[in-house]
Amino acid sequence: MFPFSVTHPRSATEAGRHTVNSGYELIAFDAEKLNAFAAEVRYCEPHWHPAPELITVLTGRFSIVVGQQSADLAQGDMLYINAEAVHSLCAEEAGSQLVTVQFSPGLFDELHPAPVLSWCTQGRSCTEADGAVRQRLLSLLSQLIDNRAPFQRIATIYLLLDALVLAGEAVPQAESSLREDAMIKKGIDFINQHFDQPLTLSEVASRSGMSYSWFSRLFKKVSRHNFKEYLTLVRLNKAKTLLRDTRTPITDISHSCGFQEHKYLIAAFKKYCGLTPTEYRKRFISRQNSLESVLAPGEDCLCLALNDALLERLALSSQCPSAP
What domain of life does the UniProt record list for this protein's source (predicted)? Predict the structure, then answer.
């Protein structure tokens, strides 16, 4: 998945070309000023966006990195991610699923800015304040599913944000941390914009304003991969998009995505997807025709229906105390 945007995917034309700040996720919000979606996810590359985000694990386990901090979340755990924070995630179990709410920047203004919080329920007993967040989330999702009372939904969004503020801890970021985040973003952007060219760690580190060793250490901490692995995954995801959305010959795709030879693209597909590019393309076409709703080999994300059955599963995923 590249980046984590399952509700408003980019077109083939847009996905296949270089864009400014391509690690920066562009999110289109509906009239509710938020996105709510459920998905089965294998992996999400480092990205960031102007929308604060609330993640709840529906089933399975995820390892999530936010900035330079990591958390291992199990079923029922919840995590708030601040706006503009670089984050990535990786499923630690097959079939792991999550529910995500992204809050539009349009919900906030100068007098009422987006909360900057540290809040995660991982590895501790659920408090009453945590329970209030969960109850507000369930109420909001129920209203979205039923598509009723639009003003009530807007009110519930703010009640959910208020519950998060009460449950979380305000955390002003140190200047050094903000500076490092900006440098890492610059490096990720440069990779995403020049993936089709020969790239070295030294070059990207220099473009980011860091030393080789500092960038290498920090980059692996944020992305979970060393530079070479990450670059291969970026190229692989670009190739997947072209295989799915175009009829471009595989040899041409390999060169346009930065693989010097066709055999390197095949090797990357076999290593990370367990199949060849040709098999991947054929399976995608077959899945489109059969309308399968199963996460296929080589895919990182599958959207789930946001309905009453899923809401019931979410309600049963944790034993938080009810809000007063």
Answer: Bacteria
Q: Residue 71 in contact with residue 122, Cβ under 8 Å?
A: yes
Q: Are residues 22 and 77 in the same domain?
A: yes
Looking at residue 75, its pLDDT comes to 95
Residue 311 in domain: yes
Residue 323 lies in a domain: no
Question: Residue 319's pLDDT is what?
Answer: 64
Yes or no: say if 154 and 33 are a contact pair by the CB < 8 Å rule: yes
pLDDT given at position 292: 64
pLDDT band at residue 22 under the 50/70/90 scheme: low
Q: Domain count of the chain?
A: 2
Same domain flag for 137 and 180: no
CATH number for the domain spanning 118: value is 2.60.120.10
pLDDT at 2: 35
Dist. CA 276–CA 265, nearest whole Å = 9
At residue 284 the predicted structure's pLDDT band, cuts being 50, 70 and 90, is confident
Average pLDDT value over all residues in the chain? 88
> SS3 string of 151-187?
HHHHHHHHHHHHHHHHHCEECCCCHHHHHHHHHHHHH
Say how far apart CA 97 and CA 61 lie, in whole Å.
8
- Segments forming the whole domain that contains residue 95: 12-171+304-316
- Judge whether 297 lies within some domain: no
pLDDT band at 119 (very low <50, low <70, confident <90, very high): very high
Three-state DSSP at 45 gives strand
Which pTM value belongs to this model? Answer: 0.85
62 belongs to a structural domain: yes
Residues with Cβ < 8 Å from 211, sequence gap 6 or more?
A: 205
Please report, for the domain that includes residue 206, its CATH number.
Answer: 1.10.10.60
